[in-house]
Amino acid sequence: MIYLDNAATSFPKPLSVAEAMGDFLANEAVNPGRSGFDLSLKAGARIDTLRHRLAQYFNHPTHDPNRVIFTNNATEALNIAIQGVCNPGDHIVSSVLEHNSVLRPLFELQKAGISHDLAPCDERGFVDPESIESLLKPETRLVVMTHASNVLGTVQQVGKIGALCQSKGILFLLDSAQTAGVIPVDMAAMGADMLVFTGHKGLMGPTGTGGLLVADNIDIKPTRWGGTGVRSVVRGHLEEYPYRLEAGTLNTVGLAGLDAGLDWLLTSEAGEIETELSAHLLKGLAEIPSIQVVGLEKGETDLVSAHRTTVLSILIEGTNPAKVGMFLDVEWDIAVRTGLQCAPLVHEAMGTADGGTIRISPGPFNTLREIDTLLEALVSFK
Asked: Can you give the pTM of this predicted structure?
């Protein structure tokens, strides 16, 4: 199979990720830090080390590892953050670019009296920071924004949005699900009060891993309560971080894999490889008259100057994307993502809501030969 759906989940993983998880299961898979024996302490130290590494990797404003909260995925982290800082009567500003992991919590919170407005994007898939500013109200509590669109790959001006929020005393929550491990994500420089990441995409870790980084001056209301392995005699859930937002046993084997994925990423040339592959792909797509790359001009091949990741959405004139996806799968054993990609409002804005797009997202283990095979397959489609 030629796998080109890395924006959903990176695959294959580095061999070292599977090896680290297998080794952990075989030799260390006890509750981390819950008991006083050596193996439990060792497992706990592994988790603490990963917190330190991620605080540095994302440049948490104070590099405080206790402000790195582990979750099952970015969706869970977004829910914890959004629900944990907003109250009835508050207002939230976001954008039409968002994934349903943001849009659906906003919709549900309307029932609790928390309103929201969504900034539009332009014809290329970018949100103007001024459009965010125009939606701010006296009761605006939070701005939540994706760093890059999971449909178009457009990288947003989140630094300007973060600075705007800081100047207004409004919290800024940044969703880096599509950029963590792909392009630099600097929490402090971007002015993010809270940063969400997932482990199973660009960070090359397994599914079931993700997290939330929280600035020191922000407190998030817990929405879950339970065991922490610390001060068990206390009747209420602990107030200090990270325990404040973590309850129960963590996915320690998954976090061992995430740690290995981060190791691999820091010593690889993944970004350069993906950029080369996408430039090659764009050049080939420009030579197929029936194909449109959504949000790009025909013949445009420089994603860096276009401020995009390597995620591309395409259309074949007069053809439903689902039909193309099935053809690629059945006839060529090529995996892409078709439809609305869990981000329906992007498609409404780009005029692709009727059927969505064909999303192509290369990863660091793809090859130029595989891209050529995809191009050959698209040319042969009837």
From this structure: 0.96
